[in-house]
Design a protein that fits this description.
By secondary structure, the protein is α/β, with parallel strands linked by helices. It has two domains: 5-136, Rossmann fold; 161-452, Alpha-Beta Horseshoe (pyruvate-formate lyase- activating enzyme). The protein contains 17 helices and 18 strands. The strands form five sheets. The chain has a six-stranded mixed sheet with strand order 2-1-3-4-5-6, with helices on both faces. It has a five-stranded parallel sheet with strand order 9-12-13-14-15, with helices on one face. A three-stranded antiparallel sheet has the order 8-7-18, with no helix packed on it. Strand 3, helix 3 and strand 4 form a beta-alpha-beta unit. Helix 1 packs across helix 6. The longest helix has 17 residues, at 62-78. The radius of gyration is 22 Å and the shape is globular. It binds iron/sulfur cluster. Iron/sulfur cluster binds at residues 185, 187-189, 192, 194-195, 230-231, 260, 285, 458.
Amino acid sequence: MTKKNLLLACYELGHQPLSLAWPLAALSAAGLNSHAYDLSIDDFPTERAKEAQFVGIAVPMHTALRLGVEAANLVRQVNPNAHICFFGHYAWLNADYLLEILADSVIAGEYEAPLVGLIKAVNDAQDINAIVGVSTKTTRNIPHIERIEFQIPERTNLPSLDKYAHYNSNGNHELVAYVETSRGCLHTCNHCPIVPVYQGRFFIIPKEIVLADIRQQVAEGAKHISFGDPDFLNGPNHALKIIREMHAEYPEITFSFTTKVEHILEQKEIIKEFSTMGCSFIITACEATSEKILTRLDKGHTLPQIKEALQLLQNLGISPQPTWMPFTPWTSLADYIEFLAWVKEQELIPFIPAVQFAVRMLVPPGSALLNHPDVENWCGKLDQENFTYRWTHADPKMDELHQIISSIAAENQQENPYKVFKMIETETYKIAGKQLPIWNKPLQNIPSPPKMTENWFC
Ligand code: SF4
């Protein structure tokens, strides 16, 4: 059968895109087929785009959407009649704008079933306006939040694992398998783009499917498994069963995942067991050291709990990778200074990539942050072309500091973390017009902890 369909992924933080592997599997199961390209690795497939009837562009995150719109414009240039569909979280958040300027359809949530229905309809020149979960120029449908029949992700024709980020431990670089055991999230942190789509729901992916996906990537040489669930411990027993079976089959394999601070504290016994089965690091979204900001973001944890969770991991020999959002409309210069002092006091400098000191809150359309009664006090206009609401800090020094820290982070990605931290600290105190404090406690020069060669976030 001629392949008239084309799927494109643009950027997924350095791993082989599940946003292609999942739909390719669903299409195969439905007797459909498609070419697929990951534009973070592959060149834009001009000839395929010229002949495509349907082009699906995966946009699970902000950067992917920005690049996805560029790719859609290229498709339109060579093939004005192709049906262009954006699918993923950011497609839903920006549906009105995308459908107005470029897209023929938008899908979010558990997207495989709507995608299959849509591709069939487009291939057969049928009406596309009555397909559940598909929004079009004339019809709006909510995200498809229904359990689907999962297939083993189809990775055969995707770029090989050696093209993607590696796992770096003691200077050894190993191939990484990127796997998910669940989708969506039980929680409703109000800055998170998953919340407007999943509204606190999550779906378990059957253990057999997950293990089969691990096996096929280990067969390709993967030595480390990165579990990319929004929160790996939303279903703790599901996660434990998978890790036990994986470890029994591949005792030499290491793994990492992302989970909330409160889950680390609630699931101490499970995490202790993980530490004996190859768990090398855990990413946890701490976001802030200020209680005021943590409450504002509805994070469900406090600073003492952050400290306890990170210490617990270190005691178990698991490297913590705390992530942060240090620039929000509510973070003062004094808060930022306290954040730096806390990181130093806790000896966390090598565990935090420089870019984490520069993360600035994004407010996509549909964000739960917009529901807060004081939104008019801090939130500016929607910048549709950049898929975010604009905000400026009441203290111009904070916006200036953000620019400076972003430049330091961008220019010093490979630099010694202590040296970069010193630069960040020096510039922060300079902006504040304060003397750098004298630090009497010598900083331990902790060896580089295990991590990916590309920084991944919650
Ligand atoms: S920030 Fe993390 S824990 Fe909170 S809703 Fe998003 S994925 Fe879930």
